[in-house]
Amino acid sequence: MSVPQVKRKIMDPKILIFMLLVCCSSVFNVGAQSYQGKWKLLKRSIGVSAMHMALLPNEKIVTFDRSEFGPSNITLPQGKCIKEDSKSSDCYAHSVEFDPATRAVRPLTILSDTWCSSGAFSIDGTLVQSGVVRYFKPCMDCDWEEDQNGLLSPRWYASNQVLPDGKIIVVGGRYQFTYEFIPKLSGSDRILYKLPFLKETRNSALVPNNLYPFLHLSTDENLFVFANDRGILLDYINNKVVRSYPVMPGGVPRNYPSTGSSVLLPLKLFSTTDSDNNTSTPDAEVLICGWTAPDSNEKANVGVFVPASKSCGRLIITAASPEWEMEEMPINRVMGDMIMLPTGDILIINGAAKGTAGWGVARDPVLNPVLYRPDPRNSDESSRFEVLAPSLIPRLYHSTAHLLSDGRVLVGGSNPNINYNFSALYPTELSLEAFYPPYFTKTKPRPSIVAVNPGLKIGFKQKISLEFTLEGSVILSDLFVTMMASSFTTHSIAMNQRLLVLAFNNKVKKTSSGNYLVEGYAPETAALAPPGYYQLFLVHEAIPSKGKWIQIKQF
């Protein structure tokens, strides 16, 4: 069956650049300075708009949008059309696998709608996607497998987090004031657990401002849940709120559709001695940036676009008396993605300066990413933020970003239109581009991991060593090792995003081959590092190596 492709109207580049930089976007101080970082277009069209995105342990990207968007720009292989009813079939792909190394695209088959859903990874590296539960294994010819009975309640706009036992908790969703677990292995997994906090933080049924709640696993095994303007600490096993945190200053919503973003700042593990694997449990600190007014969505629907905020807040959720520490981004932003870099810095990217999340309700795309340094190298606190080089492509509602193992950040999506529309004010975007953070432009040498011992499967508390190469001498004070959890990104949230700075000693050895060797320990507990796949990086003078995939679990 031959299916016609949707034709995309290509605008003259000079007109596009003029429109972006002058008329309808926010570029920070154009011409005033030379920005760090650079952009590269990887693929003009992957056939679908990258609304959801995940990097598999085999280095392939899986991305998908809603299947109700109508025709995409890529068809399924011959004979794989999905029969919708007795008279019609859908022969368009709504999900693809993308290989960043070769830029090859493989269409994938989705049998039911993905809508605005969530996801996380199982211990074996399988992508588990939830709305309806789907599984995607990291193998050469794998495709989506669906489990229509995987959830007790349908959940759109929910959030996921991997837990210390490897299960995935799914929290909230539209009209869902509960949580549950994937997979359903025991009787306790087949229960809907009520969470009144989700109803208490809803502004209204029409504009909840508490969807896609921010979830972070605390170092004490409890779950931090943030919705609207406040957070709680949830003992999800006993279905008990064990702590309520102060309302974030301003009393304004930070969640969908007044969409901000959140990260758990790096967990720094330090050995108590150089000779053992005893580490002190680090504090867990959360960063939340961006928001817009509670009525911004309603006003935008009648043509009034409220400016987004510059506001950010940090909260140490394990502190005895936690208080918010507030600061401001250099640029107003709503719908920004916060992507943790291997160095421990955070990239704030995508989004708009006015409006809110939703169909056609945002204006002034923010083209400049911002780098946030949780621990600036000098005493000037303003140096926590740095404005970086702008893109030429607006990334608004339904855009995504994801860290790649080579240190680049993959950026895609943006479709603030109900269907695929290439002539709208902000057209449906099918492209993928890569942002190169400032560490790519530095003249210092980049380290390279040669080997991980005893291997790529690692147990908790296990002693490990990294053999690496580096041109020139090693500066011990500027050397550390990080471990990044597999994540799933959509709607300005990187679910399960988690970076650990590992406990390595302050000695570097030379091997017989002339390489360098450092030794340290894997995290002590699954509360620090839930089991599964991680990217291992060695950072020297703020420049990371390419990531090496490892699997951590209880052996």
Automatic annotation (TrEMBL):
Does the keyword Signal belong to this entry?
A: yes
What SUPFAM superfamilies does the record tag this protein with?
E set domains (SSF81296), Galactose oxidase, central domain (SSF50965)
Q: Give residue ranges for domain Glyoxal oxidase N-terminal.
A: 51-439
The membrane-spanning stretches of this chain are none
Output the InterPro entries linked to this UniProt entry.
Answer: Gal_Oxase/kelch_b-propeller, Gal_Oxidase_central_sf, Glyoxal_oxidase_N, GO-like_E_set, Ig-like_fold, Ig_E-set
The signal peptide here is none
Using the record's annotation, list all stretches that form the Galactose oxidase-like Early set domain: 446-552
Keywords assigned by UniProt, alphabetized: Signal
Q: Which domain of life is it from?
A: Eukaryota
Q: Carries keyword Signal?
A: yes
Name the record gives this protein: Aldehyde oxidase GLOX1-like
The species is Gossypium arboreum
